[in-house]
Amino acid sequence: MAAEVARTCGEMSIHLDVYGVNELAQWLRSHPGVVLWARETLGLSLSG
């Protein structure tokens, strides 16, 4: 992935992180408003 970003963006200084499922879940738990959006986007919206 880093090679593709370098090819696409040239010599720009870019830091690339790839999140796994655990990192994504941890990030989502720290942003409650985004959790609601993510659940709705995935078709898992809360009822009630």
Short description, anyone?
With 48 residues, this protein is mainly α.
Describe the structure.
With 48 residues, the protein is mainly α. The chain has a domain at 17-48. It contains three helices and no strands. It has helices at 2-9, 21-29, 32-41. It starts with a helix and ends in a 7-residue tail after the last helix. The model has no long low-confidence stretch (mean pLDDT 84).
Terminal CA distance reads: 41 Å
Please indicate the percent range of residues in DSSP E strands (runs of 2 or more).
Answer: under 5%
Shape: elongated
Q: By helix and strand content, what is the structural category?
A: mainly alpha
Please count the beta strands (DSSP E, at least 2 residues each).
0
Helical proportion, percent range: 55-70%
Report the C-alpha radius of gyration, rounded.
Answer: 16 Å
Key phrases:
48 residues, mainly alpha, 3 helices, 56% helix
Write the SSE topology.
Elements: H1 2-9, H2 21-29, H3 32-41
